[in-house]
Amino acid sequence: MTAPTPYAARSRGDGTPDTFRGESRRHHTPVDRGCRRPGGLAFHLEGRLGSDQAGTEAPPPIWIGANADPAIERAARLGDGWYVNPHHRLDTIVRQVEVYQRALERYGKPSPQECPARHEVFTARSRDEAIRLCAPFLGAKY
User: Fold this and answer.
1) What's the angle, vertex CA 14, arms to CA 97 and CA 54, rounded to 5?
2) Which of 1, 59, 109, 127 satisfies CB 3.0 to 4.6 Å to 36 for a cystine?
3) Which long-range contacts (CB under 8 A, 24 or more apart) does 27-35 make?
4) Cα angle vertex 67, ends 122, 80, to 5°?
5) The whole model's pTM is what?
6) Does residue 97 belong to any structural domain of this protein?
7) Residue 106 belongs to a domain with what CATH number?
8) Total structural domains in the chain?
């Protein structure tokens, strides 16, 4: 067995198998949302009732990162925004924006005002040097 790459280790950082991660997100998002809603929190977790009425300001949005089309549809259904991945080609992201927009329409949700995204950048004296230096950390993603 080979050692996991940094990306694979990060992807499985919570110990959840890949086949369960989507299902896990479906169950965690309502708890995440409950923790952030105005007026406090009331939920059952492992048979215990939790409550906190201290916070009354609007909760921050829940952004859900997704790479594959089914996960993008899940982000539209469960989240307040899709966190666009940093490693797909631009033509793929343009297509996936359409997937996301169709899913929002299907779930009767408006387009978010924000579109969180990031790009990974690595600089060095030359392109070859940059690729050589970042390959151990980003190579598995690309």
Assistant:
1) 80
2) 59
3) 29/62, 29/64, 29/78, 29/79, 32/62, 33/59, 33/62
4) 105
5) 0.58
6) yes
7) 3.20.20.30
8) 1
